[in-house]
């Protein structure tokens, strides 16, 4: 059984377009997650440790002000294209597009005002919330009207994120969530003594500007 609660988190500044930012709290017997209508941000994710104690394991802010200032995409959905596009240029169907450069010589996470910085329209579900947004043709210089649905559902101890997109023109799209995890929980110093194992057959090297070498 998942409990879904909806509340007001804050008001966007007028220079950012105004609008009310809502917070949605999904809670099961083992997980509690807080998600904002701004950028579909996961603001908190509490889960039980081995001793049954709840702890917040993602980085974020307690107030809206933290998210309206510059931050490293804490918990947000990033797009239209997550990661870097070299020199901010790509060619689709014979036409070259130039994007805003916001990461040295490259375009990062959707450009100057990506999906992390805009308000999404929410719909409450029995066990979660679905956010919708229409990214208009030409937004951040990408082609096509792009309809995007991001759905968070909580079932027991599993939080699932589903992404769906529909476009009117051929366009690059690569959506992801940008949460930073610290599995030791809020208040712990850092993650430098954590170990992670990835059973991969191969990996993709990157150059000095973090563009894959191919």
TrEMBL record:
This is Galactose mutarotase. Mutarotase that catalyzes the interconversion of beta-D-galactose and alpha-D-galactose during galactose metabolism. Beta-D-galactose is metabolized in the liver into glucose 1-phosphate, the primary metabolic fuel, by the action of four enzymes that constitute the Leloir pathway: GALM, GALK1 (galactokinase), GALT (galactose-1-phosphate uridylyltransferase) and GALE (UDP-galactose-4'-epimerase). Involved in the maintenance of the equilibrium between the beta- and alpha-anomers of galactose, therefore ensuring a sufficient supply of the alpha-anomer for GALK1. The keyword Kinase does not apply. The keyword Isomerase applies. Pathway: Carbohydrate metabolism; galactose metabolism. Belongs to the aldose epimerase family. Keywords: Carbohydrate metabolism, Isomerase. Pfam families: Aldose_epim. Gene3D superfamilies: 2.70.98.10. The gene is Galm. GO terms for biological process: galactose catabolic process via UDP-galactose, Leloir pathway; glucose metabolic process. It comes from the Eukaryota. One of its GO terms (molecular function) is aldose 1-epimerase activity. Coiled coil: none annotated. It catalyses: alpha-D-galactose = beta-D-galactose.
């Amino acid at each position: 059984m998942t409990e879904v609660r909806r509340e007001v988190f804050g008001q966007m500044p007028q220079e950012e377009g105004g609008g009310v930012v809502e917070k949605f709290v999904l809670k099961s017997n083992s997980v509690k997650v807080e998600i904002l209508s701004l950028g579909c941000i996961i603001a908190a994710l509490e889960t039980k440790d081995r001793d049954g104690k709840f702890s917040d394991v993602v980085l974020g802010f307690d107030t809206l002000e933290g998210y309206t200032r510059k931050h490293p995409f804490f918990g947000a959905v990033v797009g239209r294209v997550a990661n870097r596009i070299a020199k901010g240029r790509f060619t689709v169907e014979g036409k070259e597009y130039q994007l805003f450069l916001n990461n040295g010589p490259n375009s990062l996470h959707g450009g100057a005002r990506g999906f992390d910085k805009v308000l999404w329209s929410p719909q409450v579900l029995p066990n979660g919330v679905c956010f919708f947004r229409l990214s208009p043709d030409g937004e951040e210089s990408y082609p096509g009207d792009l309809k995007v649905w991001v759905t968070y559902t909580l079932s027991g101890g599993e939080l699932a994120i589903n992404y769906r997109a529909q476009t009117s023109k051929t366009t690059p799209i690569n959506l992801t969530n940008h949460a930073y995890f610290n599995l030791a929980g809020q208040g712990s110093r850092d993650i430098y003594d954590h170990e992670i194992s990835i059973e991969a057959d191969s990996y993709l090297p990157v150059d000095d500007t973090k563009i894959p070498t191919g």
